[in-house]
Automatic annotation (TrEMBL):
Natural source organism: Pseudoalteromonas rubra
Family: Belongs to the cytochrome b561 family.
Domain Cytochrome b561 bacterial/Ni-hydrogenase: 8-180
Superkingdom of origin organism: Bacteria
TM regions (residue ranges): 14-35, 50-71, 92-111, 151-171
Molecular-function annotations in GO: electron transfer activity; heme binding; metal ion binding
GO biological process: respiratory electron transport chain
Pfam name, any one: Ni_hydr_CYTB
GO annotation, cellular component aspect: plasma membrane
Designated name of the protein: Cytochrome b561 bacterial/Ni-hydrogenase domain-containing protein
UniProt keyword list: Cell membrane, Electron transport, Heme, Iron, Membrane, Metal-binding, Transmembrane, Transmembrane helix, Transport
Coiled coil start-end: none
Length: 180
């Protein structure tokens, strides 16, 4: 993954935008659910209507993030910019955490359901069975991990987006060109 002043390599860009394309709607549906009371009939109905899409988007994120992480690990490079050494460390930590959470969140979401015995039909193409059997205690733990990691992911994404806007429009260093 080439990273220099000209920007990121083609593959890095494809991985970045493809993951964002699926993470953002998965997040949007999840954020919507935060305000929905799942203990009511209408709340449950809204959950059931969207869980298929939420899971499809989220499972696609896992498929994209695994090769993306392998690629990133093999092609590690430091983003070179006008930032101070301190700011570079902050950006690295934020990017590293985004990677970790973009994997932990969908995997724990899937495990939380799978360990509860739920099978998913991935875009009606293939059925993903609950391969690990039913373990309700572990399922509850995974669901909690999913909920808290998704909150952390939402927070970091907001920070990431704000940082990009700050660079683009305040510092005017045309950061978006490095990723487009
Ligand atoms: C990057 C991908 C994902 C993001 C950002 C995400 C985010 C969220 C958020 C914000 C919530 C609401 C938390 C709350 O109720 O307070 C949620 C709930 C849920 N998600 Fe995900 N999710 C992702 C992937 C997945 C996947 C792949 C699955 C399953 C295959 C899944 C299954 C669920 C389920 C079952 C709930 C309801 C949990 C409950 O309240 O009992 N999620 N997700
Ligand atoms: C509309 C939404 C988004 C915009 C405008 C955006 C923009 C950017 C830009 C301009 C960079 C390059 C920063 C630099 O030059 O140092 C970048 C890097 C990065 N972004 Fe985003 N991004 C978005 C969504 C996301 C999402 C949802 C994630 C979640 C995983 C994410 C994760 C990353 C990571 C990990 C990097 C570091 C580069 C890499 O190793 O691939 N971005 N983003």
């Amino acid at each position: 993954m080439k990273i220099d002043n000209q920007g990121y390599g083609q593959l890095a860009k494809v991985f970045h935008w493809a993951s964002a394309f699926f993470i953002i709607p998965a997040m949007a549906i999840g954020i919507w659910w935060i305000w929905v009371d799942l203990d009511t009939d209408s709340g449950w109905e809204q959950f059931e209507q969207l869980i298929g899409w939420h899971a499809n988007f989220g499972l696609t994120v896992i498929i994209l993030m695994l090769p993306r992480l392998v690629w990133r690990a093999l092609n590690s490079a430091t983003a070179s910019s006008e930032n101070t050494a301190h700011l570079k460390k902050v950006a690295f930590a934020a990017h590293f955490s985004l990677y970790a959470l973009a994997l932990i969140t969908p995997i724990s979401g899937w495990l939380g359901s799978a360990l509860d015995g739920v099978a998913f039909s991935y875009f009606s193409i293939v059925t993903i069975p609950p391969v690990f059997g039913t373990h309700q205690d572990l399922a509850a733990v995974m669901t909690s991990v999913h909920i808290y990691s998704s909150y952390a992911l939402i927070f970091l994404f907001a920070l990431h987006f704000t940082a990009v806007l700050y660079h683009q429009f305040w510092l005017k260093d045309r950061i978006l060109r490095r990723m487009t």
